Amino acid sequence: MSIQNILERQKVDLITIRPEDTIETAAKILTTHNIGAIPVRDSEAKMVGVLSERDLVRGFATKGSSVMSLAVADLMTSKVTSCRSEDSVKDAMKKMSKLHIRHLPVIDDDGGVIGMISLRDVMELRLEQSEMEASELRAYAIASGGAL
Questions:
Q1: C-alpha span between 42 and 101 (Å, rounded)
Q2: Which of 40, 61, 88, 122 is deepest in the core (most CB within 10 A)?
Q3: Is 148 within a domain?
Q4: How far is residue 133's CA from residue 50's CA, in Å, rounded to a whole number?
């Protein structure tokens, strides 16, 4: 299974934000769309960072309520780990686990962001895959006269 399988299942378009937008705007977008992270793209549509709920919490912890008037660029993570649509789900899961992150932007060959996957997306796909494999094994055992 590849990351492309996850992207095909997603029912929402890619939502992005600009570095000059305020944290208040970002918080509203995250809440409205029920997402935990958002890619940050510049005026040329190149990804320059990611803003996550974790970034917001760190901002509140260090800057207090004044964080709401800051720009996204002030809090975003600019050193972004990403994946490609042809990468395996297993590799993405390993990367997320190793780096303790819950969201991965998916980039194309030109470095443009084409999607965003979450740990939840990965886990749901892996769970479905496991259930399908168990069902196939059950059917095989029944067909071959074995019992479970």
A1: 23
A2: 40
A3: no
A4: 35
- Structural domain count, the chain: 1
Q: Is residue 102 part of a domain?
A: yes
Strand ranges inside 56-138, DSSP E: 83-84, 103-107, 113-118
pLDDT band at 146 (very low <50, low <70, confident <90, very high): low
Tell me, rounded to whole angstroms, the distance of Cα 29 from its chain centroid. Answer: 15
Residue 115: count other Cβ atoms within 10 Å of its Cβ: 22
* 65-121 residue pLDDT tens: 899 999 999 999 999 999 999 999 999 999 999 999 999 999 998 888 999 999 888
Structural domain contains residue 77: yes
CATH no. for residue 91? 3.10.580.10
Longest dimension (CA), the chain: 69
Token pair of 122 as six digits:
């990965």
Q: Which of 92, 146, 148 is nearest to 119 (CA)?
A: 92
DSSP helix/strand/coil, 43: coil
This prediction's pTM = 0.80
